[in-house]
Amino acid sequence: MDSQILVTNIQRFSLHDGPGIRTTVFCKGCSLRCPWCSNPENLEPRPEEYRKDGRTGTYGRYMACDEVYREVIKDRAFYGQRGQGESLAAMPGGVTFSGGEPLLQAPGLEPLWRRLKEEGIHLCAETSLFAPGDRLRLAIEYLDLFYVDVKILEERLCGQILGGNLKEYLFNLELLFCAKKPVVFRVPVIGRYTDNAQNRERVVELICSYPPIKAELLKEHNLGREKYLSLGKHPLTLDSVTDEKLEEYRREIEQRARVPVQICKI
Ligand code: SF4
Ligand 1 centroid to 43 CA: how many Å? Predict the structure, then answer.
């Protein structure tokens, strides 16, 4: 496994990136520029210098798949075995690929995915789905579960605000559902950007058309602030969405799409 991937961090004992106890590999590089992004260090597809508290450092380094394998396999005892259960609660822990956009590095990740799959480890991706379809096809071959963002579902605004091609997203979503892969939808609820009547309606319709095993509504937070400053960038101050509005949104999705919905505040 001598192919290389660009990684910013490997986080062990993660409880928020999929079922069970997981190790999360943060891949650097993303095709979108969501104004609310809390991982600004994962956007550019190259190592980046930062400065924090008078110190300098680098976000991201190229790692051979072998090296990543040796790191993630350390926690094998906590993972369990693939195929343990179909429902989210019954699924085992394992390894999650996040970012940035992990699908962009799918060809480099393939040997690692193959080896982990052969060893029965449950694999999951957190993805925006804004990536070429051939990368997603590769991921579908190996990964067990997909956490998919649902952000702005109007073509012009998706391009203008996120820098993404909505047609690519919808094409990939169709691919994923045709492959019958379990999906959890993650909906960031961000005042001004994603939280308006038209977008809400589109989000609910999409969830009705592609029923996931679960949907999550993500409340905005400012956790990325320090990282923006360390890169010499200015973090955005986000408009807050009230708990009542979130609860109302949760009920609407549950009633119309008949899927469990969780509100997540980080
Ligand atoms: S898709 Fe995720 S990582 Fe990429 S810009 Fe948006 S929030 Fe950030």
Answer: 7
| C-alpha distances out from residue 81 to 33, 95, 121, 209, Å | 36, 12, 6, 31
Output 40 or 237, whichever has higher pLDDT.
40
In this structure, the residues whose C-beta lies within 6 A of any atom of ligand 1 are 30, 32-34, 37, 39, 42-43, 99-101, 128
Pick the atom of ligand 1 nearest to 99's CA.
3
Cβ–Cβ < 8 Å for 185, 217: no
Mean pLDDT to the nearest integer, 51-75: 96
Number of domains in the chain: 1
Residue 211 near residue 259 (C-beta atoms within 8 A): yes
Backbone angles phi and psi of 141, in degrees to 5:
-60, -30
Rounded to the nearest whole angstrom, what is the distance from the C-alpha of residue 199 to the centroid of ligand 1?
18
What are the tens digits of pLDDT across the range 166-218? 999 999 999 999 999 999 999 999 988 999 999 999 999 999 999 999 999 99
**Which range of residues forms the domain containing residue 56?**
4-188
- CATH number, domain at 69? 3.20.20.70
**pLDDT tens digits along 131-151:** 999 999 999 999 999 999 999
Find how far residue 72's CA is from the centre of its chain. 18
Tell me the CA–centroid distance for residue 29 and ligand 1, in Å: 9
Cα–Cα distance for residue pair 75/94, rounded to 1 Å: 9
Position 251 in a domain = no
